[in-house]
Amino acid sequence: MVKRRLKSALALAVLLLVLVGVVGYFLPERGTSAHLIVLDSQSFLILKDKFNQAGNSARLIVLLSPT
Question: Residues 46, 37: contact at Cβ < 8 Å?
């Protein structure tokens, strides 16, 4: 009786994992729309314009430095 329940629980767990995998595979990707640019004197004006154009949406600027 215990073995039967264990087998049923294992089969259900495997089925759920397969189902989650299939659903995750076919759902559209929900990546971010982040655009990474190297900030130099020429690209700064482009960044400024894009930042100002996106006034109705969330904006985030992340500056990364190796030091």
Answer: yes
Other Cβ atoms closer than 10 A to 7:
10
CA angle 7, 13, 17 (to 5 degrees): 145
Q: Which uninterrupted H or E stretch holds 14?
A: helix 2-26
Q: Domain spans of the chain?
A: 2-53
Instruction: Please write the tens of the pLDDT for every residue from 13-65.
Output: 999 999 988 887 777 666 656 666 677 878 888 888 888 888 888 888 777 77
**Taking Cα atoms as reference points, which of 59, 39, 55 lies closest to residue 47?**
39
